[in-house]
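Q: What would this chain look like folded?
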Amino acid sequence: MSEERNQYQITRKDAKNCFVESLSDAFGIGKVHFNFASYDLNKPAGQRQTGMVSIYIDADEFLELCRKLTCGELRYMVQSQKSAASPKTALYQSLGGTSAEKLKAQNRSRSDGKSLSRTLQILTGNKTDLLLVADSGPGETTEKGLIVPKFGNKPENHITVSMSLDVFGELLLITKTHYEAWLSAWYAQRISNPPPVQQTPPKPKNSEPPEASAPAVPNEFF
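A: My prediction, written as structure tokens:
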């Protein structure tokens, strides 16, 4: 990761041969950015990264997830699933990605011509509280602009980070603190320097974030 990109890191949580980090670089477009990365330390330096998936969650959706964590609703959901005999369902799911049109405009079109789908699922684990599963692969853009995955059970990138509810709370709440601090600074700046009357419509809420192209950690590590 470049120094400019690395300075946006808020926190990082590690698991076996993988990690998830939260970044502040998408606050300006109303999103919270999580990078998932996997690596193999047996490979030569500079070639150790084996996968990366960038997940962007709308700020209001992220705050609702924080609410479920802090009020105990998420813990109750995990305990209920662990004690139930029925199959476990996702505690949370996020669908996102980059449309084929935007990839083409960036000269990054996929060979199959499809959109790039990126998904995140939070599942109840067997040996731990939670599994954060990030996948990416071919997708299709619906009429409403939603990018749905079309890779079945064979994503091009698949990263699973296991963690306890306590560690998940650390990940979410420190990120929430940084987002609220950024928002306070943004409002303070607007009060001190009011923007001119807006002549163009604001960027839509579902605007796509810039595609992450840098590795998730410094090259000397990988």
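The chain has a mean pLDDT of 89.
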